[in-house]
Amino acid sequence: MTLTEVIYEDADFHIDDHDKVGIVGVNGAGKTTLFHVLMCKQELDSGSISTGNARISYLTQEIVLDDESCTVLDYLLAGRPIGKLESELNQIYKKLEDANDVEQAPLLKQMEKLQSRLETFDYYEAENILLHIIDRMGIDIDLLDMPLNQLSGGQKSKIAFARVLYSKSDILLLDEPTNHLDAAAKEFVTEFLKNYKGMVLIISHDVSFLNQIISKILFINKATHKISVYDGNYDTYKKKYALEQRLRERAMVQEEKEIRDLEEFVRRANQASRTNHALKRMGQERALRLEKKRSNMQTRDQIYKRVKMDIRPMREGSLLPLKVENLSFHYPNQLPLYHDLSFHVNGKERFLVVGENGVGKSTLLKLIMGILSPDRGNICFHPKTDVAYYAQELEQLDLEKTILENTWTDGYTVKQLRSVLSNFLFYANDIQKKVQVLSPGEKARIALCKVLLQRANFLVLDEPTNHLDPDTQSIIGKNFQLFEGTIMVVSHNPWFVEQIGINRVLILPSGRVEDYSHELLEYYYGLNTEKDL
């Protein structure tokens, strides 16, 4: 069964060369699709979109690197085509050695063009510029000689972002760029983008981040499939859009009154005697006006519902659901991530794991879930512990299967699953869509739905808010706060962490466990993250 869905219809917009623009719209409206169109990864059914000869760099929300065997440094340096230009220039030099007078002129012209391009990319200062970006984004120098395939998801995201910033492209497309940034890196990126000499288009659920950078909002309306551009930041856009909606509603109420009046007049004219020619003619004229008004009448925007959650556990858990004893682990050809790591999680506790990117936070959760095997040590769940896992990379989803197939859970009928999926904003034929065509935000909602369908009493959550809009983040935060079971969580979102009510904090790689405090949270998410913690 093939399902089609209109994303844009007769949409048009214009963005100037140096604009900083926030792209907004509900999940599934077509924000990421717009980036795919700009990158020529998605064809339009009709119409055109022009970026001239602009050089474009794209930071995807779901990081997939082309060649993960190359080193981090080689990957970063490839952000600017300096090596390619140098190679072409050396070929010109070789040709000039044997060229005659007639052949020299075009070669010299080509050489001048290549040298000009190298100057555009700050040929002599490029490596210093890259080192500055590496330093300010908090990328460990020791990572530069490592292959990309040995990095964590958070490290890959930060390095991919650094390459985009280094690229010096005419247009930057950034899809949820702050997902893996600590406060220091976020502050640097904010200033960098504000002063960037080019166009920047940002999809982000981080309203504070958007407000500091953008001067325009591009709004994709999922209901009308139109695109509108608003001057000002996100807060200004919300006020303007709300005013537009009020004026539009007022106009529609007036239109509806005029249609009712015309309908009444036409009805009376139709009931008039055949000899009343004047009234009959007026009725025919009003009927034409009525038909025109009906065809031109505005339609109200769809009001999108919010996610609803029911996370009551199937059964009561134990007082000590998890114990980890003397855990040691290392990836092949790498130093150990932990050595004799021991801790326990109490029943109904909110247990936070913190540490810099690459210290093994996600790896620890995978060890606990049995996805990876430790070098030695024990991971012991109490027999009454029922575990559900939300993976940062959403790898628990099968992209080739439909939404319904991905959420299929024993003990539920199709009707019950439809009801649960509607709580996560998937309706009717939506559930037959393949997951691969969905936006990251929609995939995250499915993954969250899968977790809650298990009715577990112990939730293991790896960056559960990364792809979710602020409204949904707030809803799941409030629900997790009221959850009657235990939560172990890795999150770069301090607002979410505080909302769910953390009891204790595991600090990696040291393995220390401390009682939660706001100051501790600020320290680990703040500007003073230390390398040895």
Judged by helices, strands and strand pairing, the structural class is alpha/beta
What is the strand arrangement across the widest sheet? 2-3-4-1-5-6
Distance between the termini: 52 Å
> Which consecutive residue ranges, at least 5 long each, have pLDDT under 50?
527-533
Quick one: overall form? flat
The strand count comes to: 15
Q: Main β-sheet, in a few words?
A: 6 strands, mixed
Instruction: Report strand %.
Output: 5-15%
Treating each run of at least 4 consecutive H or I residues as one helix, how many helices?
17
Average pLDDT: 86
Task: Tell me the Rg in angstroms.
Answer: 29 Å
Helix content: 40-55%
Note the topology.
Layout: E1 20-24, H1 31-38, E2 56-59, H2 72-77, H3 82-98, H4 101-120, H5 126-136, H6 153-166, E3 171-175, H7 183-194, E4 199-203, H8 207-213, E5 216-220, E6 227-231, H9 234-271, H10 277-296, E7 322-329, E8 338-345, E9 350-354, H11 361-368, E10 376-381, E11 387-390, H12 403-407, H13 414-423, H14 440-453, E12 458-462, H15 470-482, E13 486-490, H16 494-500, E14 504-507, E15 512-515, H17 518-525
Parallel strand pairs: 1-4, 1-5, 2-3, 3-4, 9-13, 9-14, 11-12, 12-13
Antiparallel strand pairs: 5-6, 7-8, 7-10, 14-15
Helix pairs in contact: 3-4, 5-6, 9-10, 15-16
Structure description:
By secondary structure, the chain is an alpha/beta fold. The chain has 17 helices and 15 strands. The protein has helices spanning 31-38, 72-77, 82-98, 101-120, 126-136, 153-166, 183-194, 207-213, 234-271, 277-296, 361-368, 403-407, 414-423, 440-453, 470-482, 494-500, 518-525; strands at 20-24, 56-59, 171-175, 199-203, 216-220, 227-231, 322-329, 338-345, 350-354, 376-381, 387-390, 458-462, 486-490, 504-507, 512-515. The strands form three sheets. The chain has a six-stranded mixed β-sheet with strand order 2-3-4-1-5-6, with helices on both faces. Strands 11-12-13-9-14-15 form a six-stranded mixed β-sheet, with helices on both faces. The longest helix has 38 residues, at 234-271. The chain is flat and about 100 Å long. The two termini are 52 Å apart. The model is unreliable at 527-533 (pLDDT under 50).
